[in-house]
Every structure is written in structure tokens, then in C-alpha cells.
């Protein structure tokens, strides 16, 4: 049996504050939408700016964290999977494709602008904070002049 891959990573801005609600059995779920900007050259050779709007959902502790710390306009990196749901409304069949988030990284936080990561869309992970990278000095080296013993990893 062959396996499929359903994985998506999006970097965009929140179009609205995450909306937190509870399922009848008490599980937290947050709905939010991302605006993804892109540019491309049109047929006339001019650059065209375009925006895609993607609906997303997060569950459990990830949903609660997003509702607590994220606000409209903030940049966020979301990893998850695509999910399609179908329902009937007023006698018409409807369907929707959305991203079910399982991990999220703050690109801009409301307070200090630092980067933070939160995972556990299923509620199984604890909060984890990514470390900021240290200042790195890059020196130009001509080919063949690298001392392999001086590499720190």
C-alpha cells in the first residue's frame, strides 16, 4: 500500500483575532485565517501583487495559546495538514478545505517582537520557546582555506 503526504507550511498575517470556542465535550478549538501575499510578473512584464486567504483551525492547547497571544495583523508560521469537510446547508451541499494546524511559530509577537514556537495542536505537547540565534560573524574564505578543526559542529 502506498502512503500519501499531507503537509503544509504557511507564513502569513492573521486576518482577524483567533476565535476560541469549546466543543460539546470540552475540547478547545480556534478558527483563524491567514493572508498570504505573493507577487509575480504579469503578461505585460509588470509585477502584480496578489493575496490568498486561507482558513485554518487549531485544537487543544495550541488553540488556547493562539487565542491568548495572537492578534489580527501579526505574522505567524503555521504547519499542519489540509482537511476537507462537507455538510449540507439549506438543502445545498457545501464543502471547505482548511488547514488543521499542529504547530505554530510567532514571527511577530504583540509585546516584544521576539520569535516563539508553540506546538501540540492535539494538546499533547507543552509550550516550547525557540531560542534566538546568536550574532554570527561570517568571514569570506577563499576556496581550499577552510580549517575543518575550527568548525564548531
Structure notes:
- Helices cover 7% and strands 47% of the residues.
- It is mainly beta and 153 residues long.
Keywords for this entry:
five-stranded mixed barrel; 153 residues; 7% helix; single chain; mainly beta
Structure described in brief:
The protein has 153 residues and is mainly β.
Quick check: average pLDDT? 79
Low-confidence stretches: 112-118, 121-144
What would the principal axes of the Cα set say about the shape?
globular
What is the number of beta strands?
A: 7
Helix and strand layout, with pairings?
Elements: E1 8-14, E2 19-22, E3 28-41, E4 47-59, H1 60-69, E5 75-89, E6 92-106, E7 116-119
Parallel strand pairs: 4-6
Antiparallel strand pairs: 1-3, 1-5, 2-3, 3-4, 5-6, 6-7
